[in-house]
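Comment thread on ticket #2218

A.B. wrote:
> Attaching the input chain for the structure job we discussed in standup.
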Amino acid sequence: MTPQTIEAYGVRLRPFRPADAPEVVAGCADPETRRFIPAMPDPYTARSAHWWVTEGAPAAWAAGGAAYAIADRDTDRLLGGIGLTPISDVRGHLEIGYWVVPAARGRGVAGAATRALSAAAFAAGAARLELLTHPENGASQRVAVIASAPGPTQINPLASTVRAK
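C.D. wrote:
> Ran it. Output below, let me know if you need it in another format.
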């Protein structure tokens, strides 16, 4: 994939910009985000967000993944982030991950962004996408179910995974 803008399912996926940094902090420093994505820097500061926007996201692209800002289609305001990470030596086997700023939660943003990115990834040649959720993250489990249809999927509720083949 290349970092072009994707507009689908009511959201815009675009590369991160330096102006996104304050909203990146709001989303990534949030206790609920940190609970389910514990690998983020702690504390998550403006410096962390600046690094992500200027170095981390471009590095994800360079490594064969993707790192998109989820933005409102009308205002372009940052609603969250979504990306793909290669998870095996097999080409086209990727994990999808996302976060949403607190003010945008419960509005279908993560589901829409996941569907948009999944469609673009498969169109670009992805063979398999995986979305792993924490067992206590019911919202992300709902996103996984929404994003898995239509198409062949394997849902394992005990491990809280959905695999699209």
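A.B. wrote:
> Thanks. Noting for the ticket: Residues 6-164 form a domain with the Aminopeptidase fold (CATH 3.40.630.30).
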